[in-house]
Amino acid sequence: MNRKKLNPDSSPQAAFGADLRRVREEQGLTQEELAGRTGFSSSHMSAVETARKKPTLQLARKVDAALGTGDMFERRWRKMNNAGLLEGFAQYVSHEAKAAEIRLYEVGVIPGLLQTPEYTEAVTHSAIRRGAITNEQADERIALFKERQASLTRMPLPLIFVVLDESCLCRPIGEPALMGAQLDRLLEFAELPNTVLQIAPFTMGERRPLSLPLYLLTMPDRSLLSYAESAHRGQLERDITFVAPLLTSYYQLQADALSPAESVAMIRKLRKDIP
């Protein structure tokens, strides 16, 4: 391999390749040996190391498994491919895909885990028109939406608790038919055996303990993670000192929100008003 072809500072893709080559060589492996462990050809591995081919998520995960690097290369891949996302969100998604329990609270917009493809595209294309993201970043967001949806069907099924502020239902996105299909999707979600869907109505007023979106994960080892966003950044938190009070607030929110049956009734009522 001609090392002069690889400049780690030239691009995130080149940095990924440089790190891959460094770790491989530190473990005394040839490209052929690593290729054999991952199921890729040695020529493909060489192309990734020299930044002639962009690594895929599948390759990053297989390399992590083959080299025993935890999720190092998966995190590098996500950082490289999710530049249009808020800081911390790509890392949150990697944990969400493994969580035993997922708790979401959202304001103003249906959370990505429950969105229809059309709803996602409408929100994403609006961001393009505003100049907030590029077309390439939009494609990355839509690809991430598809990946997150797999959490609903993976085995073992995670328990998914969702509380939506009433504003999520009242804010129209796209044409009426699009919003009607999205409400149908919520009703389908509510019927799944591993989900609980509740609405936090406007009438909760000051009793609503949370004012910003919040995502909470319980991992298979029962450790807790939280993810919260401001306008400019996201924060992934693992320290139980900070996560535990958020979980308490979430339980208080669930206690005061509409019951699952009342929530479904509200969604059905709204759905009937959409042609």
Q: In this structure, how is the largest beta sheet organized? A: 6 strands, mixed
CATH homologous superfamily caption of the largest domain: Endonuclease Chain A
- Overall SS class: alpha/beta
Principal-axes geometry comes out as elongated
Using the CA coordinates, give the radius of gyration.
Answer: 21 Å
Q: How does CATH name the architecture of the largest domain?
A: 2-Layer Sandwich
Q: Tell me the series of helices and strands, N- to C-terminal.
A: HHHHHHEHHEHHEEEEHH
Report the helical percentage: 40-55%
> What are the low-pLDDT stretches, counting only 5+ consecutive residues below 50?
none
CATH topology of the largest domain: Endonuclease, Chain A
Question: How far from one another are the termini?
Answer: 62 Å
Q: Count structural domains.
A: 2
Strand order of the largest sheet: 3-2-1-4-5-6
Q: Average pLDDT value?
A: 87
β-strand amount:
5-15%
Number of helices: 12
Number of strands: 6
CATH class of the largest domain: Alpha Beta
Care to give the gist of this entry?
This protein has 275 residues and is of the alpha/beta class. The protein is 50% helix and 12% strand.
Give your account of this protein's structure.
This protein is an alpha/beta fold and 275 residues long. The protein folds into two domains: 3-81, Orthogonal Bundle (434 Repressor (Amino-terminal Domain)), CATH 1.10.260; 89-113 and 148-272, Endonuclease, Chain A (2-Layer Sandwich). It is built from twelve helices and six strands. The protein has helices at 12-26, 31-38, 42-49, 57-67, 72-81, 89-96, 117-129, 135-149, 166-170, 176-190, 240-256, 260-272; strands at residues 101-106, 159-165, 195-200, 214-218, 224-229, 234-237. It starts with 11 loop residues before the first helix and ends with a helix.
